[in-house]
């Protein structure tokens, strides 16, 4: 089926999401591993992605783990360091698609406050034709409601959507709905997918 619109995840597709890298540098390998295991901060972040206020979530977790409180607050106070740098070629591909008249939608697990920080830092995040951000919608991938909302609000048939995401479970949820998919493993391979789909030429996908 012909692709009518492209759907992009954001973290590790358009911008790097690597909190472990930051904490490894801050705490060292052993303490960093303990930090993630003991605080379960990724579980907290999923609730932020579902719409929980970032400040409140961080302070609650810091209260539960006072020995890690300063490090937990880094997640809020230095959040942009966890989400950098941009994946420049992916951003160029997004703009190239739009220049060809192909709509590009965001479908991403992202907190309300952190998405605003990211939009200020990375202007291309303001350029989607439509954005479906989990924190605003109160549900997260791979829950089917988020995918269904995109289908309903854009009016694009599932089989005409081409979706890339770096997490297999999110890709599987899209495949179950009949979307065309690509498990993102780098901008170079993503560019080739777009070329193979006839959406961009080799020159346009540089």
TrEMBL record:
SUPFAM superfamilies (alphabetical): HAD-like (SSF56784)
The name of this protein is: HAD family phosphatase
Entry superkingdom = Bacteria
What is the organism lineage in this UniProt record?
Bacteria, Pseudomonadati, Pseudomonadota, Alphaproteobacteria, Rhodobacterales
Note the CDD domains from the entry.
HAD_sEH-N_like
